Amino acid sequence: MNILETQHVKKYFATQKAVDDISLSVTPASIFGLLGPNGAGKTTLLRMITGIIYPDSGDIIFDGKKFDPRTDIERIGYMPEERGLYKKMKIGEQALYLAQLKGLKKNEATRLIKEWFTKLEMESWWNKKVEDLSKGMQQKLQFVTTVLHSPKLIILDEPFSGLDPVNSNLIKDEIFRLAKNGATIIFSTHRMEQVEEICDHIILVNKGQKILDGTVKEVKQQFKENLFRISFDTMPLNTNNDAFTIVRQNEDYSLVVKINEGHTPNDVLRYFLQSNANIYSFHEILPSLNDIFIHLVEGTPAARQFQTVTA
To answer: pLDDT tens across 295-306, in order?
Structure first.
């Protein structure tokens, strides 16, 4: 049984279709990527899933029944992209207050907060105020308050925003650990490179609509172009053959080739095994998620945004 389903959900603001008939399914203990450019409808969809706003039409099913914010919200942890912290409040007191709002008793909440603060190297923060923290430090605090009560479903909207590489790895390791221990993670971002190593399943949305849905492996296989990179100890003398077309010849004695229709990688290998050069490596070049997204929305503002992100 899926932990979460949205069935044809729609949400309009005036004449804008923020979410336009999106259906998705999230399996338990998985890391699910909700991807798309800014303004694609991701945050609106997440706010409906968490009961902050209601869909104009369609259903949200949580853990096998229609989602009811009054009873289900304590089993969900939501970390929004915007900061939801009280700037003047001491950090330890704030974490304790938010934990009690999620149903934890004070003693249990205090114990868990201290465990998480130790784990994420935040022990000295207890009596500091939020306004004294950097953006990245606030992000770590917000992550702790999101997962502290061990929610069944954890929703993270741009969780690595403001984090340096060391702290990004700390949070990433905890995301993997939480999923391994049975939590389901929905990870929303427009940074495709983070998704490739974290997510099991993804959907891409643009202009409020779902444009792609599948596992990372399935999506890459769907858009592959039969490109292979071959490295040699020296460049082969003869590279003309019906089995492939050379796309690029590199200075490091490697070729990028496209296998022609009706031929296989074995045909290419057989040809070069008979050449004057020794083969060091032979591997398929799969498109990145970023490349796939740009291909799907080519010429739109979304495509230009993604090209800027990876430039």
So the answer is: 876 655 444 444
